[in-house]
């Protein structure tokens, strides 16, 4: 009898792999070691839990540990921290409060995920400084918000002043970082009545999106009374035992709490100690099947790098779908059906109050040139539904293509929430993945009816305009 | 100096061609003959005008005749009916109230559109029997609805009983045909307080969609108190001078008015008289550049057939985007940049009260087999947003692929209105057009965030399930 398929880490990649392996081969023994108590949780939902739109952390869990154990017959061991991988002996060593376990493996998946980046500045250890990566982070933040609101319901926040119940409350709160987490948490806090100061080191929020999308979102954040501090590198979080202010080169803003939304880094220490190679991005390197440099040892999810579908180069974009997809592919591979699970396009979506935005592929011209392309972009603003239809708004799309080949490289879109910027991006993702040209996209026979779009959907309008620009440049 | 580019018909295809030709070559003389007074109007908006959500017919016009003449320098002659094309002399003959014009052409575009089909039954000439194809149809229907409501505002219909102000009003109204027009008009009439009876010859509405989509929409129509008569071929519209009842083989339903939504047929008489070939669909046959069998004579829009992107065969799917796209391509071709304008996928979208639905490609298994495929379909129902997110509904997707190649052939989707069935279809259209396989689609890196979808968007869930079925059938 072979040794089991062992998985280190019980979140998206790990549990997808374990579940798929069991479905493909019910006789295969599958052991999962998870350091914490929570598995398979939707960390992406945490901002909405903190905001008060989701009432329990349990709601974020798609499958409980008991269900994994009983319904899926997975030997899931929570509270087990894997401290060593011996790739020669083909074992992992895990520590548990009751002792140490040495577990042999036949195939191993490292799915150790990512950790929030703590910027190297003074004061991040003061009370009242939070990150948002884990369920316990979410719990602490929600408790903080609830205290600040003095037990008022969070479910239907009224935007009244928050923080009025805390002793010595200084009112405002600081969010460091203008990425997804920063923006989603700015919304969660502002909707609970906090005065929110958002600090962004660069000159715009959502730097992976187009400048037009960044501006669109920034304008809306300001409309919602979020105070934006752009080009503001935070130098320290000052205060006493508790945080008192955020200090930048030019300002000192008094705050009652600070949320650090400054990105994540892959958890690679365990893999590195076992002699597993990291890639140029700093995450674990794998081949197209997620196998590392050590045979039968795989890595997937937030700890591993992927290949970018447009550039063909390694990329580190730790997001939930990739973790699910690659974990699932590993589960197939180790049970006898080699599966790649696909490349990534760096696709992402975010809701910011009443605005939605999405991006995919390569939008930044420097990044495109570095990948060997000659990028051309056009930005169009078009109605989201037929002009005469009583409802609707506008969508702004930046579409980027390679001048010579006409190949679509990426897109960035923004609209009012509900007007479809995010779901419009799906067509562009498909085009990217299929290496379509702008003139291919221009001729896509997309669905049309007045309650949904104009005859030429905004995606087609963007393709028409960009196609015209490409033609002019070759005429 | 060359003779002008002459266009017959001033709606989507004709005005797109004329406008594009002028943009490409401002010196080119462009003459458009339009039989009526309206040009470039959004007929797709007529149901919403009748419903009362759009306040004027003018709102449906994207560019006015004056703007075409003055801003775009197009010689637009409304009220001119072209009665003859002489392809040897390269002239068209048009009649106008002031006389007859013989106009030479260098290139000619036939864009004569379509006409509502009047089923060959007794009584369709009675008063109170309407079709909905032209602006004047829309005007008459709106006047009828307004009279029935006795001058009450149509803008915010309250679903109170309509038809209470008309003399001898029998109350109910009949809609014949369960396609887009039939369903949109059922909504328009029901929302104005009419008791609506919808008669469908076949056993389900929206026959081009999947059975699951048809059922989804039918159930919702019934929830909205539309009385569905399925498998009910209408044999006569009985009554006196005015319509009094719809008669089927098994029933006689008293009605006050009847709307015929029984499809359209291409207007081809003028072309046929000029010796221009029709295709197997009964519409004008063209090559990939929309050129007919007669050199320099093009046909585009609702009078012409297209090539289906999945089957590669001629297809007649008269819809607005195709007319725009093909008209525009002809405008480019006749000014020196040969353009195909792309194939069609038979993509369509419809709103039915609080439900939205879309379809694309080949969904019907008989049609797929006829085109040489071995079709396999799966239908999944998935949440439209993250399961824990406070808003959201469900999307039901039927995805169809070819067993051997795995190629995606088509899809049919339905959801609550606003939950994204229609915009989800865009990714499938792109996949079809790029000849992607189901396992390609399964690995698309689609945008994800909890306010928009689950980690695996419903499109990906459908692809995963169908991919599994295809694998089983080859294992």
Description:
2 copies of one chain form a homodimer. Chain A has helices at 12-24, 46-51, 65-70, 135-148, 180-190, 211-223, 269-273, 320-333, 365-370, 421-433, 438-442, 458-474, and strands at 5-8, 30-34, 75-78, 81-86, 91-96, 99-104, 107-110, 114-116, 129-131, 173-176, 196-200, 227-230, 234-239, 243-248, 252-254, 257-260, 264-266, 297-299, 306-307, 314-315, 348-352, 355-361, 375-383, 394-402, 408-416. Chain A is 26% helix and 26% strand. Chain A folds into 3 domains: 5-44 and 57-114 and 265-333, 3-Layer(bba) Sandwich (FAD/NAD(P)-binding domain), CATH 3.50.50.60; 129-262, FAD/NAD(P)-binding domain (3-Layer(bba) Sandwich); 356-474, 3-Layer(bba) Sandwich (FAD/NAD(P)-binding domain), CATH 3.50.50. Chain A is α/β, with parallel strands linked by helices and 475 residues long. Chain A is globular. The longest helix of chain A is centred in the last third of the chain and has 17 residues, at 458-474. In chain A, the strands form 7 sheets. Chain A has a 5-stranded parallel β-sheet with strand order 3-2-1-7-18. The interface between A and B is large, with 73 and 73 residues.
Features:
475 residues, alpha/beta, FAD/NAD(P)-binding domain, five-stranded parallel β-sheet, 26% helix, globular
Stretches of chain A where pLDDT is under 50 for at least 5 consecutive residues are: none
Please give the largest β-sheet of chain A: 5 strands, parallel
Figure out the total of helices of chain A.
Answer: 12
* CATH fold assignment of the largest domain in chain A: FAD/NAD(P)-binding domain
Radius of gyration of chain A: 24 Å
Pair of chains with the largest interface and how many residues each contributes: A-B, 73 and 73 residues
The proportion of residues forming helix of chain A, as a percent range, comes to 25-40%
Shape of chain A: globular
State mean pLDDT of chain A (0 to 100 scale).
Answer: 95
CATH level 1 class label of the largest domain in chain A: Alpha Beta
**CATH architecture name of the largest domain in chain A:** 3-Layer(bba) Sandwich
- Biggest sheet: strand arrangement of chain A: 3-2-1-7-18
**Annotated CATH homologous superfamily of the largest domain in chain A:** FAD/NAD(P)-binding domain
Structural class designation of chain A: alpha/beta
Q: State the distance separating the first and last CA atoms of chain A.
A: 68 Å
Oligomeric composition of the shown chains: homodimer
Beta-strand content of chain A: 25-35%
What's the total count of β strands of chain A?
A: 25
Number of domains of chain A: 3
């Amino acid at each position: 009898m072979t040794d089991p398929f062992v998985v280190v880490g019980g979140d998206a990649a790990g549990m997808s792999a374990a579940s798929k392996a069991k479905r493909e081969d019910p006789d295969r023994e599958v052991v999962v070691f998870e350091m914490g108590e929570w598995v398979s949780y939707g960390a992406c939902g945490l901002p909405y839990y903190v905001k008060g739109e989701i009432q329990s952390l349990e709601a974020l869990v798609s499958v409980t540990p008991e269900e994994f154990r009983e319904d899926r017959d997975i030997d899931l061991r929570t509270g087990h921290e894997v401290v060593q991988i011996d790739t020669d002996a083909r074992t992992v060593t895990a520590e548990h409060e009751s002792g140490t376990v040495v577990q042999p493996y036949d195939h191993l998946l490292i799915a150790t995920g990512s950790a929030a980046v703590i910027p190297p500045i003074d004061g991040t250890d003061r009370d009242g400084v939070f990150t948002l990566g884990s369920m316990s982070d979410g719990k602490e933040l929600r408790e903080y918000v609830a205290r600040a609101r003095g037990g008022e319901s969070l479910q239907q926040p009224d935007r009244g002043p928050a923080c009025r119940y805390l002793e010595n409350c200084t009112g405002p709160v600081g969010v460091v970082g203008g990425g997804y987490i920063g923006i989603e948490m700015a919304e969660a806090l502002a909707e609970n009545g906090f005065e929110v100061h958002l600090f962004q080191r660069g000159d715009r929020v959502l730097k992976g999106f187009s400048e037009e999308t960044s501006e669109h979102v920034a304008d809306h954040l300001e409309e919602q009374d979020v105070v934006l501090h752009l080009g503001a590198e935070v130098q320290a979080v000052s205060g006493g035992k508790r945080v008192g202010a955020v200090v930048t080169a030019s300002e000192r803003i008094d705050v009652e709490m600070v949320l650090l939304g400054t990105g994540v880094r892959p958890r690679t220490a365990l893999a590195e100690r076992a002699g597993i190679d990291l890639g140029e991005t700093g995450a674990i390197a794998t081949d197209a099947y997620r196998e590392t440099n050590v045979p039968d040892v795989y890595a997937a999810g937030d700890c591993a790098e992927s290949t970018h579908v447009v550039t063909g180069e390694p990329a580190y974009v730790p997001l939930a779908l990739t973790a699910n997809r690659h974990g699932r592919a590993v589960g197939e591979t180790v049970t006898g059906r080699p599966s790649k699970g696909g490349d990534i396009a760096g696709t992402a979506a975010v809701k910011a109050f009443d605005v939605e935005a999405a991006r995919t592929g390569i939008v930044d011209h420097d990044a495109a040139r570095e990948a060997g392309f000659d990028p051309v972009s056009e930005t169009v603003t078009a109605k989201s539904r037929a002009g005469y239809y009583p409802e609707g708004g506008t969508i702004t799309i930046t579409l980027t293509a390679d001048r010579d080949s006409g190949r679509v490289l990426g897109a960035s879109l923004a609209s009012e929430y509900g007007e479809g910027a995010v779901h419009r991006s799906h067509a562009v993702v498909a085009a990217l993945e299929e290496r379509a040209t702008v003139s291919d996209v221009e001729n896509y026979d997309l669905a049309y009816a007045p309650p949904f779009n104009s005859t030429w959907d905004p995606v087609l309008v963007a393709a028409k305009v960009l196609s015209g620009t490409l033609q002019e440049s070759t005429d």
